[in-house]
Amino acid sequence: MTLDTKTLVDELRDGNPRALARAITRIENRSKGYRELVGELHRHSTGADIIGVTGSPGSGKSTLVDKLAAAYRERDERVGIIAVDPSSPYSGGAVLGDRIRMGSAIGDDGIFVRSMSSRGSLGGLSGATADAVKAFDAAGMDRVIIETVGAGQNEVDIVKTADTVLVLVPPQSGDTIQMLKAGILEIADVFVVNKADLEGANRIVEELLEMIQLAPESEEETWRQPVIETVATSGTGVDTLCETVDEHLGFLDRTGLREVHARRRYEEEIRTLLRDEVGYLIEDEIEAHGGITELGEAVRNRETDPYAVVEEIVNPLRAYLSERS
Amino acid sequence: MSADRQQRTIRCMVAKVGLDGHDRGAHVIARAFRDAGFEVVYSGLHRAPEEVVQAAVQEDVDVLGVSILSGAHNTLIPKIIEGLREYDAFDDTLLLVGGVIPEEDAEHLKELGVAEVFGPGTSIQKTIEFIEEHAPDR
User: Fold this and answer.
1) Residue A45 exposed, middle or buried by CB count within 10 Å (0-12, 13-18, 19+)
2) Please, what is the Cα angle at B127 between B65 and B87, to 5 degrees?
3) Where residue A32 falls among pLDDT bands split at 50, 70, 90?
């Protein structure tokens, strides 16, 4: 079954889950015509709230995402979930297991869960995540929740993709210095101490609050990261978390930061796409110069050096561009 | 032309339906599929046919592999097929069944639209090759 882009987008906007699923697949596979598809989706997107959830493996991300989605459903909002799991660096395959913990979606067409492999991308998301968000948005989702890979220390991509970033911190996740160096602290809009019924939860909350106090004062309206305690398995604290997320979104709207962030997001997307495209052009050029193996061998034999090779490949391009300007 | 670099990956779902609680085999298969370069969505235990169908549609899998060791395949599999048809997803989903299935039942399931039935002792390599050969062309 091959649908043309227009039919696919029409059906997707009509609420056909299969059309939405197929659109995301085309985006992931970069199937023929996916650019037009994403363009069309972008035109039809209205700006769903995008909530990112990150935290170390086992911190309870999937369970919390499920409970959040259920809470939004109670308010009659439609929810799209993207759950990213790592791909194997060896085979490129992946086991996607987040869905197991997402029971709320069952039998409810108002929740759409899509598991994604990171497909080799570092930084916690897949290259296709941002475009999949557009598909959810165009399909009329009010909220899109993105769950990152969960490596814990380097998941900065989520900031570029989400309006509000929740960072899950389980009790007993080390002392304050661990958290200071983790690099994940700067990306949080809201800290969630999940599994708050476990020993050590109070201490983590105290330490987080203390660290947040260390942030410099400012004249402008700033957002002070709240610390919310939850027990995702029982749903305790989830309502408070929903309210806090809305407070943050309200703050973004009040200060105009939501537009600023959205614009930056697109700036970044444009840059990434350009880098990819130029990269492909260069790949073709490498082939035209005899292929990378040959070039590598030539460098090894001291016939040339890496910089000279690059110069030779890039020079015509540079000459063309400078001539044009 | 460099403009369209497709990154086609075979997506599978490994599903456990009904009451049987034995998922070791499903874990082994999920892992072998990953090592073969597939993306594998694992359903977890005790799923109802409707849940499996909904998940398979949302995940847009090429292959749906259902593992049943409880003997309830004659009830559960037709429900899955019916559900996939309702979503208009039956024709381009490769439906496989694994488990302890008597031969005459296997024949019956194939008549209903199951692409292949893999009984105990089937080598995983054989299953992977079957998928690579028969994964629907979309």
Assistant:
1) middle
2) 25
3) confident
B42 closest CB neighbour out of A22, A95, A117 = A95
- In the chain, the amino acid numbered A174 is G
Interface test with A, best of B10, B16, B60, B137 (most A CBs within 10 A): B60
In 10 A of CB A318, how many CB atoms? 10
Chain B residues with CB inside 8 Å of A107's CB? 50-51, 54
CA distance to A4, A138, B54, per residue, from A9 (Å): 9, 8, 20
Which CATH number belongs to the domain containing residue B79 in this structure?
3.40.50.280
Q: State the pTM of this model.
A: 0.89
The distance between the two most distant Cα atoms of chain A, rounded to a whole number of Å, is: 69
Please tell me if residue B74 touches chain A, with a CB cutoff of 8 Å: no
Span B72-107, pLDDT tens digits: 889 999 999 999 999 999 999 999 999 889 999 999
Cβ burial, residue A137 (10 Å; 0-12/13-18/19+)? buried
Q: What is the pLDDT of residues B12-47, one digit of tens each?
A: 999 998 887 788 888 999 999 999 999 999 988 888
Number of domains in chain B: 1
Report the residue of B5, B6, B9 to disrupt the A interface, i.e. the one with the largest count of A CBs within 10 Å.
Answer: B9
Q: Which two tokens stand for residue B136?
A: 């629907």
Residue in B90, B134, B132, B86 with CA at minimum distance from that of residue B112: B90
Give me Rg for the CA atoms of chain A.
22
Contact B40 A99 (CB under 8 A): no
Q: Which of A182, A229, A176, A238 is nearest to A56 (CA)?
A: A182
> Which domain range does residue B53 map to?
3-134
